[in-house]
Amino acid sequence: MRMLKRASALILRRGVTFSQSRLYKNDSLFRVHPSVSQALAENKPVVALESTIITHGMPYPHNLSTAKEVEAIVKAEGAIPATVGVIDGEVHVGLSPEELDHLARCESSLKVSRRDLPYVISRGLSGGTTVSATMIAAHRAGIPVFVTGGIGGVHRDGENSLDISADLTELGRTPVAVVSAGVKSILDIGRTLEFLETQGVCVATYGASKSFPAFFSPQSGFTSPYQVCNPEEAAKLIASTLCLGLQSGVLIAVPIPEEHAAVGQQIEEAIRAAVTEASAKGVTGRDVTPFILQKVNEMTKGKSLQANIALIQNNAKVGSQIACALSEHMKKTQARDETQHHGKHSSDSGSDIVVIGGINVDFIAKGKHKTLIFGQTNIGSVCQSFGGVGRNIADSLSRLGQRPLLISATGADSHSEAVFNYCKHMNTSGVARLEDQSTATYCVVITENGEMGLGLGDMDVHEQITEQFVSQFEKQLASAAIVCLDGNIPDSTINYVCSMAAKHNINIWYEPTDSEKARKPFLSDAWKSLSYTSPNLAELFTMNKTLGLPTPEVLPSSPEEVLSVAVALSRPLLEHLHCLVVTLGANGVLLCGEHEAGSVNLRPRKQRRKRKLCALHYPALTVTAEETVNVSGAGDSLAGALMAGILQQRDTDSCVRMGLLAARLSLVSPHPIAPTLTSDSVDPNKVQTHSWPKPSFMWID
What is the mean pLDDT of residues 395-420? Predict the structure, then answer.
C-alpha cells in the first residue's frame, strides 16, 4: 500500500483539510507515554496531572517528592497517572521518572498556559503546564479526568483590569472534568463562579455540603450550584456532560480535609498580608500567585506548604476514585447497550455481522530535519498504532454495542500478542495466528515537513485470508445481516463471499481501501452481488472505469461539480447495488439508493426489485485544524457506525448522524477508533451539536 495514495484517500474520504505541517505537529510534538496510551486503548481509568506545581508551585526537592507521591496515590486507587509537561518543545502526556526529575530541577522552566504553548514549542523550550494547557493535552489524548490543586479565577478588581485566568475560558470550551480544591482566596470567588456560569461550566462541590471551597479553607462564603456526594455521582455527572457533547468542562470542587483546615485561618491572614505586599511591590500577572505562595509559606513557617501538599494528595485520591467510577460507568453502559441489543435480536439469527479484512501494526518514523540522510542515523521519533481497515471497522462496531466476528490473519509473534491484547473487547475468534507468517506491519519514514522518505510494508499475511479459510465460517456468513469486506483481502476470497451472497441472500458491504483495491470486485461479475459500498470519489471513478463505463478525464474540484459527478458515477452501479455511500471529504457524504418516504432506504434488502432512485447529500460536520489529531480511522468509524445504525433499525438520518459523530470522535482522538466511542456518544438524540448537517434531496434519473 502506497503511503501517499493511502493518505490522499483518507483526506478525500474524511472531510478534513489536512496539511503536511499539521501531520508533523500532531504526531511529533504531542507524545503520549506508552503506559497511558495502552490504558486508554483498554478503557482503563487515567488521571491527568498538571506540572506547574513541579516547576513553579514548590521548591526542589519538595516538588519532585510531591509529584511522585501524587502519582503513587493515583496508582494505589487503581488508575494510571498522566503528568503533563512540555520538554524541549514537545508536549508530553505521561512523564517518565527521568522526565519528572528534569522538570523538577530545571531552573529555566516556563509557566505554560494555552497562550504560551505555540511560543514554547516553537523555541523548543521546557515548562510546566497550567490548568488550561493540561486540559488541552488531556482532551487530545482522550483523558476525561484531570486533577489539580486549585484553578485560577477572576482577580480582585477583575471587572476593571479584566485579569481573568485562562483556566476559566478553557473550562468553557474543553470537555474535561477538573478536580480541584476550588479557587484561592486571593481571587474574587463570587465573580469567578459567575464567569464559570457564563461559560456554561457545570460546578459541583464534592462531599456533604454545597459550600464552595477556597483552597486552604473548606468554605468560601459562596455555594456551588450543585453537589455530588461520592465518586459514582461525580462519574454520572461527567458521563452526562460527555454524552451530551456540550464541549465544555466540569469543575468538581473538593474541600481540603478537615484535619488540615485547622490552620486555614492563619494561612488566610498570611495571604492577605502577602497580597498587600505584592501590590506594594508592583507584582502583577502570572507572577502574583508564585510570589504570594512563597511569602505565605515563609509567614506560616511551612504550614501552608504542608496544607498545599495535603489538599493536592486528597484531590488525587478523590479524582482517581472518580476516574475509576467513570470507567466502570462507561463499561456498564456499553455492556447494557450490547445486552439490550442482543436481547432484542436473540431470536434473530440475521442480527450478527461478519467483518473480513486486515489487521496491521503501523510504525511511523518522523525525522526532525527537512531532509533524511540515508546511510546514517537520523534524529526523529517513532510511534506505533494498531490499524487495518477490517480491524478498525470491527472495533467501531464492537464499541457501538454490536458483536461482529472479525475474520483475519496474523503471525504468531510479538506483534500479534500486542494486537490481541489491544483488541480484548472484540470477538477475534475468527483470527488465525499462523506460525510461518509475520503479522502485517507497515513502516514509513517521513521528513520534518511530512514528505515520505521511505515506506516499507509487510502485508503478505493478508493473502492468507483465503477462500478455504473463510469457508470455515459459512454458517456465520449465511446467517449474517451484513458481511463487510475489506479491499485488502485476496480477489478469490472476495469472489467466494460474493457467490455466497447469491446463494444465501447476504447483504455485502465492500469497503475499498484505495483506488487500486476498489477495482477488485469489478474485475468480474462479483460486484453484482454487493449491496453496499463506501468509496470516495476517486475510488468510485475507478469502479466505473474498471467496468468500461464513461468517466470524466479529471476529477472535479468545485463542490457543485463534485456532487454532480458523484451522482452520475453512482447511477450505473445502482442497477445492482442497493446503496452507495460516497464520501466527499470536505463536501460531506452522499447517499444514493432506493427512494422511500423522502429518504434513501438503508435497510438490508431481502429481494432485488425495480425501484425509484434518489440521493441525499449531507454536509460534513465541522472539525477545525486545531481540534484534529488523527485522520487514520475516521472513514472506518463512519462506516462502522452506519452499519451499527442499520442493524439497530434506525432511520436513515439517524444512521448518517451516528456515522458523522463517530468520525468526528476519531478525528479528535490519537487512536484510529476513539476509545470514547460508545452508543451514547454517537446517539443523535443525546448529543447536542450546533452544526447538524441538513441533507439536500435529489432524484436520480
Answer: 92
